[in-house]
Amino acid sequence: MLKVLIIEDERKLANSISAGLLEQGYDCTLCFDGTSGLEAALKETYSVIVSDVMMPGLSGFEMIKKIRDQGIQTPFIFLTSLGQMEDKTTGFEAGADDYLVKPFEFKELLMRIKALSRRPFDSAVTSVKNYKYFDLEVNYRTNSIYRSLNGNRIQLTPKEFALLDYFIQNPERIISKEELCEKVWDLDFDTGTNIVEVYINFLRKKIDKDHEVKLIHTVYKTGYIFKAE
Q1: What is the number of alpha carbons within 13 Å of residue 206 lying toward its C-beta?
Q2: What fold, for 3-117?
Q3: Where in the chain is the domain with CATH 3.40.50.2300?
């Protein structure tokens, strides 16, 4: 059974989300402030964490940073009324994988939870233990990623891993933003969102920044391509 940690100080909303997820077969843990949410996240292993941003104790932004600092890469969804792009960017940069603005439809939250709770290495290439492209190496058994410059392990969030994995499955092929939205986020493409650009930027900083040969390239007005160049 998949376990979901719900951290939300609006108790009516928290209980409503929990009831809906229980009907779908999820096991839910409820916390009503950031401090207890952090304690729960550090104590137990969850499939997904769903959290508000503005809460008593720690804010959601402060909490996720502490969670990520402990090396915990559990998929994380923010639920919040803070819908400005700078707020979303702050959340993503802190380590969130998704961001849902209140009010929202429960079915949309459920869809995003399902998408994030999939194991990031559930892909077409996992019949082999190790994947290598140019100097990038991925071990799908341990979710370990390396490039040969310094041999240090590259730490990715689950959504960053899923994005890289989709590029790995489709090397040297132009992939549109629409396709990435659908395949990586399970979302219909919205011309008003820049979630793809945000995560491409995150992934480039971790995969390409210190390397002369880049692997992720923008194709003007078309999309992106994964190739050594």
Answers
A1: 19
A2: Rossmann fold (3.40.50)
A3: 3-117
